[in-house]
């Protein structure tokens, strides 16, 4: 039985979640030739304050810029 776990930022509407679960289920059923009741989808909404990337919390107004650091930064103390 496939279990599909999705961690996402909060803010998706109930209708979007319903469609997301339906489409994930449909793709999995078709790809693996399974009955739909064998596919479990779990969506976990996480507040932006609980997300971070590249050392920056997602609530930071400059998150998009700060979270795109692709090279290791050298720190001198």
UniProtKB/TrEMBL annotation:
InterPro entries: 4-OT-like_dom, Tautomerase/MIF_sf. Keywords: Isomerase. Gene3D superfamilies: Macrophage Migration Inhibitory Factor. Residues 2-59 form the 4-oxalocrotonate tautomerase-like domain. The keyword Isomerase applies. Pfam families: Tautomerase. Belongs to the 4-oxalocrotonate tautomerase family. This is 4-oxalocrotonate tautomerase family protein. The lineage of its organism: Bacteria, Bacillati, Bacillota, Bacilli, Bacillales.
């Amino acid at each position: 039985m496939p279990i599909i776990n999705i961690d996402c930022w909060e803010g998706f509407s109930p209708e979007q979640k319903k469609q997301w679960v339906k489409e994930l289920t449909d793709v999995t059923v078709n790809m693996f030739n399974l009955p739909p009741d064998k596919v479990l989808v779990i969506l976990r909404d996480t507040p932006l304050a609980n997300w971070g990337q590249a050392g920056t919390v997602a609530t930071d107004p400059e998150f998009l810029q700060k979270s795109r650091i692709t090279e290791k930064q050298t720190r001198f103390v």
